[in-house]
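Running this now, will post back.
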Amino acid sequence: MAENLQVSFWAKKEGEHGVFRYLIGCIGVVVAYISGQIPYLMSHGSTGQSSNEALALILLPFAVAGALLLLVVRFVHQLPPLRMATARPRADQDRLAFGFWVWLGLLAVPDLLGWWLQPEAYRLTFRPEHLPGLLLVALTLLFVQTTTEEYFFRGYLMQGLAKAGNRPWAAVMGSALVFGLLHLGNPEAAQYGRGIMLLYYVGFGLALSALTVLDQGAELAAGVHAATNFYGAVFVSYEGSALSTASLAQAASLEPARMTALALVSGAIFLALAKRRYGLPGLKAAWQELSQPIETGKHNY
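Update: finished.
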């Protein structure tokens, strides 16, 4: 059912939104992320380190960057941290759960069919002794990682771009492009082709950014992103994945074109289900929402 929210997703009338403040925030996030990498760099190449320990160290920088970003929003932008990511007074747990479980199911269906029709395309990599540790990391730091990314790209960065461009579609496209470019550093981009992977990354970011604006909050997007990384880390991974884990199974190879096509189909199904459950706007209303000017507010530097 659609909500009658009293405020817009865009927080430009609240807090402080000067360009210099966003510059401070972005630089601070980069510095915090790099600082969080120190433990991983110090332990890289050490003998006896399990894949779960390596995964935890890889994800640690997101916890450091996320904590710093919350402080920036609170004290530099003078906003309650949640206000950057949703128009709701509190995070909607139902939306988070819906996004996670529905998207997890949509990810599983193609692999289950693929395993049945072409079992040689998968190999079991399940290691029971690694499962408890993997679940511990996946249910904590992995969720922190995806939440931090969503808070930054779908919240902080979009709010900043909205100040500069004053149009929702410009903020949506800008955040998606930055999201895609930063993910080009993932190992799979080099292995399977940067061009096709950039198309996938930008498309995924574009869908999540548009979903955030249309639903007036990043909860659904955060659930989808968490499900994507959780599925890849715990259930089915692939060679060259940015998250190298002892997952239950591994696909013989990643086919970017097939993955992009499946994402489009799954995305359409997800949007239809979300529209039915939460009253998301249709195509015409969605375009009006994305193209109308954003009311301006404070611009203190």
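The longest helix spans residues 51-75. More later if anyone needs it.
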